[in-house]
Structure formats: C-alpha cells, structure tokens
TrEMBL record:
Its cofactor is Mg(2+); Mn(2+). Its EC number is 1.1.1.85. Substrate binds at residues 98, 108, 137, 226. Catalyzes the oxidation of 3-carboxy-2-hydroxy-4-methylpentanoate (3-isopropylmalate) to 3-carboxy-4-methyl-2-oxopentanoate. The product decarboxylates to 4-methyl-2 oxopentanoate. GO terms for biological process: L-leucine biosynthetic process. It comes from Chthoniobacter flavus Ellin428. It catalyses: (2R,3S)-3-isopropylmalate + NAD(+) = 4-methyl-2-oxopentanoate + CO2 + NADH. This is 3-isopropylmalate dehydrogenase. The record marks 144, 194 as: Important for catalysis. The gene is leuB. Keywords: Amino-acid biosynthesis, Branched-chain amino acid biosynthesis, Cytoplasm, Leucine biosynthesis, Magnesium, Manganese, Metal-binding, NAD, Oxidoreductase.
C-alpha cells in the first residue's frame, strides 16, 4: 500500500481544534481510497515558543524535511504579540519554513459555494450558483525580494527603492504549476501582468505564451492587472485559474478571498522546489489565522483546514480521487444545511467544530 509521510503542525488558537477534524476526515479517506498516511505531529508557533523557546524548533524542521508534505494549522495570538517582531510566531515560524523549503508557488482557491453566495459582499445576481477561482501566485521573486532594495537620501531628501526582477526560469516554473492546475480543472488560465508599462510584464507574457505550447488543452488569455482587479469582482464565474507574480498575486488573492465571503472556508497551498514521486512537496494551511476571539470554544469552522488536507492529497500526493471526494463531501454537508457560526444564516442548522468534522467524515 502507498504510504506517505506527513508533518502535522497544528499551531495555536483554533489550529489544534480544526486540525483534529482534518485528521478525522483524512482517516476516512485512507480507508476508503487505499493509501496510508504516517502522520507526525510537531510544535510550531506560540506553543513552540512556550515549550521549546523558539517558534520553529530544529526538531520540527527535521520532521518536515523527512515528510512528503506539511499540514499546517495557524500560529500566533495575543499572548505572543508583545515579543519583538522577529520573534513573533508568524514571522519566526512561517516565513523561515517558506524559505527553508523554497516554497515558490502559492495556490489559493477562492470558492463561493452556491448555498453561501449571501456571505459574499458582491451582489448575488453576479455570483448566482457560486464560483471557483484558483489564484496561483509566485511567492519568492519580484518586488518583495529584488535587489537593490532600501532607503537612502538624495539631495537631503529620503528616497526608497524596491526592485522588480524576474528571471525567465522563475516565470517558467510557476507557469508550469498554473497550467498543470488548470489541466485538473476547467482548463482555462488567465495570466496577469502589466505588460503595457513594465518590462517584467513583457517577459512574463512572452514566457507564459511559450510555456502554453506544452499545454494545448488549456485555453490561455492575458489581462492587465488593473483590468483583472475589476473583472474578478464583476464576473468571478468567468475565471478558472489566475496566474500572477508576487505583488499582483498578493493583492488579487486577498481580493478574491473577500469576494468569496467566508474566511473559515478557504484553504491554501505553498508548493516547493522539491519534487516527490507523486507531486511537489508543499505546505498546506487555512487562509485565516488563529481566531483568538473564538479559540477554545469549539465553534471554529474546520472546513478551511479540511480543504487544505484535500489540497495536500491533490498537489503533493496525487491522490486526486480522494481529494475530489473530500471537496464533494464538504459541498454535500453545506447543501444539507449544516453551518458553523461564521457562515450561519436563518433557516440553517448551527453546529460546532466537531459536529461539522463528523458530518464531513460521514459524507465522505
Ligand atoms: P484571523 O483570521 O485569525 O481572524 C479574523 C476573523 O475571522 C475573526 O473574527 C475570526 O474569528 C474569524 N475566523 C478566522 N478563521 C475562522 C474559522 N476557521 N472559523 C470561524 N471564524 C474564523 O485573523 P486575525 O484576527 O487578524 O489574526 C489572529 C492571529 O492569527 C494573529 O496572531 C495573527 O498573527 C495570526 N495569523 C496567523 C496566520 C497564519 O498562521 N498563517 C495567518 C493570519 C493571522
């Protein structure tokens, strides 16, 4: 039987609560779809600061390094907010993990379920029937990391410099991730750039066009980022996979999370350079944080964590049938009218974290 090694890092706040439900669902998927997951839990974030003296202990990095994928909860909370910025859980755990494992591709699905369109701030007439957009963002290049970067003075006046720089190979590898993702979906890719103004955009567009020849089954179109920001709000149903460089992807994926409406529903994946026999090593986590306002109350929505586990099956382990089945089980439970507090509305049944996890496991 295929066995995969998974590092499980629940973290802080609602992290352990929602992780327990993801594990419950994964346990059913293992039995049903004939693979085995060797799960090893490790500490990360505030809990690791308390117990080990640092947010990312060496032991945790070692366990992650020996695994096929990392299933991550979320880290941080009021208890650690007074620490110096560099020691705070998110900065001291998540960023070094991203760097250590060269996680260059950020995948954020923005899914609005047909029965949850009321949670979106967008007019229901524009999103009737829901939508499902996958944002693929380049995570390690561009304006956030380009050199030179810094501040100096010119003629007594402060000046700030950031450099947008992409190598062709960096664009190629993220384009491959996006085209492959599109192949597993509706086979439509929209590449975002600013080729009318930026040299980076010209190289981006030419490179994506070149890579497109290897994916003749995927329909490619290009949008300037300013137009994309408008079209994504106006007609999210018209999109399938959206590919963008680091800065544009940062902004557009947040915009899409908002348009989707329910933070507790949105998973994410960060894929690394390391290829495994069944895909790419990656870190899979909910888009939201540790929700200190509701932590410990048993009312957090576990769906983002459960869908993150499904993404892990899809992108790192190539267990596509199991991943699709988990997605379908979540949809079914939503269609059946079960809701945690964050997505509750009149006429639906309010449930807690465990009941939601149990219902999804049963639907699976
Ligand atoms: P947050 O996402 O934790 O919470 C924002 C709001 O969304 C809260 O009202 C919360 O109750 C709600 N929410 C989030 N996830 C939910 C879920 N699964 N079910 C129901 N409701 C949910 O963002 P915040 O309040 O800005 O941050 C809280 C802490 O989390 C901070 O310490 C922050 O640094 C940390 N954080 C961590 C990550 C990460 O680990 N990747 C990401 C974002 C924030």
């Amino acid at each position: 039987m295929k066995t995969f090694k998974i590092a499980v890092l629940p973290g802080d706040g609602i992290g352990p609560e929602v992780m327990a439900e993801a594990r419950r669902v994964l346990a059913v998927a293992e039995k049903k779809f004939g693979f085995q997951l060797a799960l090893t839990e490790a500490r990360v974030g505030g809990i690791a600061i308390d117990v080990d003296g640092k947010a990312l202990p060496e032991e945790t990095v070692r366990i992650c390094g020996e695994s096929d994928a990392i299933l991550f909860g979320s880290v941080g909370g009021p208890k650690w907010e007074s620490l110096p910025p560099n020691e705070q859980p998110e900065r001291a755990a998540l960023l070094p993990l991203r760097k250590h494992f060269a996680l260059f591709a950020n995948l954020r699905p923005a899914v609005c379920f047909p029965k949850l369109t009321h949670a979106s701030p967008v007019k229901e007439s524009l999103i009737e029937g829901g939508f499902d957009v996958l944002c693929v963002r380049e995570l390690t290049g561009g304006l956030y990391f380009g050199q030179p970067k810094g501040r100096h003075e010119e003629n007594g006046e402060p000046v700030a410099v950031d450099t947008m720089i992409y190598k062709k190979s960096e664009i190629e590898r993220i384009a491959h991730v996006a085209f492959k993702a599109a192949q597993g979906r509706k086979k439509k890719l929209t590449s975002i750039d600013k080729a009318n103004v930026l040299e980076n955009g010209v190289l981006w567009r030419a490179t994506v066009n070149e890579i497109a020849k290897q994916y003749p089954d995927v329909t490619l179109n290009h949008l300037y980022v300013d137009n994309a920001a408008m079209q994504l709000v106006k007609n999210p149903r018209g999109f399938d996979v959206v590919l963008a460089e680091n800065l544009f992807g940062d902004i557009l994926s947040d915009e899409m999370a908002m348009v989707a409406g329910s933070l507790g529903m949105l998973p994410s994946a960060s894929l690394g350079l390391k290829e495994t026999p069944t895909g790419r090593f990656g870190l899979f986590e909910p888009s939201g944080g540790t929700a200190p306002d509701i932590a410990g109350k048993g009312i957090a929505n576990p769906i983002a964590q459960i869908l993150s586990a499904a993404m892990m099956l899809r992108y790192s382990l190539s267990e596509h049938v199991a991943a699709d089945a988990i997605d379908a089980a979540v949809r079914r439970v939503i269609d059946d009218g079960l809701r945690t507090g964050d997505i509750w509305s009149e006429g639906t049944r309010r449930v807690g974290t465990t009941e939601m996890g149990e219902a999804i496991a049963a639907a699976l």
